[in-house]
């Protein structure tokens, strides 16, 4: 079965029913992963009919509000499923998330929202609609990095810009430190964003409040008599920059050895203010807007933080602050009278970082950040769209973070701007938002850890590829309904699934061969920033030397 | 500080406020565990005031309905917290419990309801209002047993009978096989109940559907040439008997070697019918009623069970059937017009039996049946009382299964019938039912595994006594808010709690010395049953010989 035959069949159906819209034609031109073609063959007719209904419904909404819907994607770090938005767990964990609880009660609670296992990959997947491994963004890099999201990737900001959306990015991008990867160079009209994750400003420095948790980063902490390379530590890293489409960037709050945690704390508030300000500015504009607000959340340093929860970890405070911040965003939508024309997705980017000191613990699933087990990739996620989403919807379907790309494009009438020369893993899941549980067009998900295909989920079953040995030895199979914590591998009971899973992998591998992964893009960091510090120039040198060595 | 000074102070307060009711005086005569005296000293005045309000409120309800409230206590086996009654988990586990979900949404969801770690002890604690270790009922016995709940224990049925309640017990008692332990000899007007747990009829037999899982119980499965004692296996066990207060019992459906699983399956339906019939008969009686309906739930044998859930374990089917059965009970209350004058508590008796084949898995906490970890003792529990309980209440307070004893007594105006010559661990928790979250009068719980004091919970903290070694080595402390799954012992961080926990244990041990535990009551089984089978008489012989050997 080829993509072509499917296309022809479904187009024929659409045409005979007189319902083939531009969006539907665009959808059929998109190259999805092999598994989706199987589903398309089974369900294509049904979906085409439903798409016609959806188009009608969206057109009515557009007529009512005078423009396409605004889209806000809020995504934060490292949170265990259950940690937020489920009232029973607030009692179990000893802190409160009333805003996200309300979001769940008045919108959608996802129970199988899958992400990549760590922040850089999940963010790349959301931006590109593709498994992170396809864009080379499969790892979480730390300074000195010298790599990032390739310019050739087409982001959701580019797709929505083409369709006339105003676009903005605030807070944590973590998409690398090379110029082509900057958010304002990747389609966003305006952006203020961080190049790396939170660890540098929270943990690395010696003075100010960060000093409480430092572990060797600062020069004093070394026996200098044993030959000490003063350029080895990445002192000149740049935490946060801002820029506008087509313009140069500038560093915002410098992360010198002094006062980094204080600056990081300021950044959390600044990003929040920027997000609110963007909403205020664009609320009554002719153009709809897309806001990617991916706030920094955690601040694991207790110093200077008032501890007010029974849970009494800094992380609990962080979650309560996040919840309040999201509350401010939702209130602003109400205040501006645009809540009913705005889809808000709020979700974590991956599971808890259980290695972080005294901070993050699993609630339901096993595993955490970096792990292919459910705890790493099955995240807290909620959607709000008053008047469109049925209140209190709990979705048991599989949904993937890269589906947001295609779904947002559909809502924006922008599907024809999705590139058709590469695999787009993201499926259009508008039906889930409009019709709720049982409407997902996906029953599979491939989990990569770094560049390695670690596991595949199909329906309620999961097969772990990583660690499997050739022959019939130690290959883990799980029934996730029975054993959501993946505690008892059931290869023997599930040998019926051996062959079917092999087929899924074979199809996936064949597609990957046809459309090879883009290698990780390397480059000199921090070009295109107007106010570079001397340490940052030194850092550039380190990366440049490494690149030359490799030649 | 002695019990007496507290009593005097509080009585003085009550008298000066002119609010000392019979119930309040009775409460003050009850001997609680040492920890409660500490709380009484801190909060006694506040509680006395609240008790006056509560008495008024209950008197108004009695006036409205013309009698005291009916009380139904539904308690079933071995269920992981989250397994039932929380919609998000229905999606995670792949089966539905709409009735219990509704109960949680319209009543109380408990998040810290603690039980004993296994069925016999939990049931003894609920019946007597005391830690099971105090009545010698600390273990789960299997045939041949020859022991049971001592006659001297005062059960909730006796207390409520004194206050004019009609009382009935149906389904799984598991309180032993000696005559004094039979439910109709322990205060219930009428009873049909099982003496042991589900394993004998489900697993042991060779024929019929039980044959699928047998493992050596039947005579054929033995090499007879190596001297085979034909009396060693407890062939004559009696699964289920019925009786009325003051009368002899009779065996209902015999569990011969043939057809036991079929009979067990019939029993599940019979007990349900009996419970419904009791409600119908007593609904419009002058007397209020107390119904202990502790249904058999599980049936781990797939044979003859239609599998209709995605979860596809027999256990999921069992849970769905339980949920339907509870739904029938609640519907009957509506039909009879007595829902608003009936408190229903629905709860599991302990955590999942993770050893059972392909059946039970943890959802949130670690550990299961038999374990002092949260997974063993922190159970799914819900309360319904329309018009009294605030809908959607989620209770984060500690509540213990033995608190139901004292709470039921208070609702029935029967506190003066609670014995005052022994420790009653059960605290009157009426305030939680009437006023919701944050109203518990308990912030501690002692966990026993068998006769061993395994762990103590105080507030959100837990100290594990079992396995601790003298000196400062390997003593487990947990902060349950941070680490609900008890995965990372935090002795070092919690050394501040070393001394305070020691004090709690010392006080508890001192009280135990003053009021010693009743030894396990032994006796000849099956006396007082009119229709004994020859195998059961043989079984009696085995026990009698053992008792004589011990002399």
TrEMBL record, chains A, B:
Single GO MF descriptor: arylsulfatase activity
Keyword Methyltransferase found: no
InterPro entries named in the record: Alkaline_phosphatase_core_sf (IPR017850), Sulfatase (IPR050738), Sulfatase_N (IPR000917)
Record carries keyword Hydrolase: yes
Gene3D superfamilies referenced in this protein's UniProt entry, alphabetically: 3.30.1120.10, Alkaline Phosphatase, subunit A
Signal peptide: 1-25
Entries under Pfam families matching the protein: Sulfatase
Sorted UniProt keywords: Hydrolase, Signal
Domain Sulfatase N-terminal: 69-414
Domain of life: Bacteria
Family listed: Belongs to the sulfatase family.
Protein name as annotated: Sulfatase-like hydrolase/transferase
Taxonomic placement: Bacteria, Pseudomonadati, Verrucomicrobiota, Verrucomicrobiia, Verrucomicrobiales
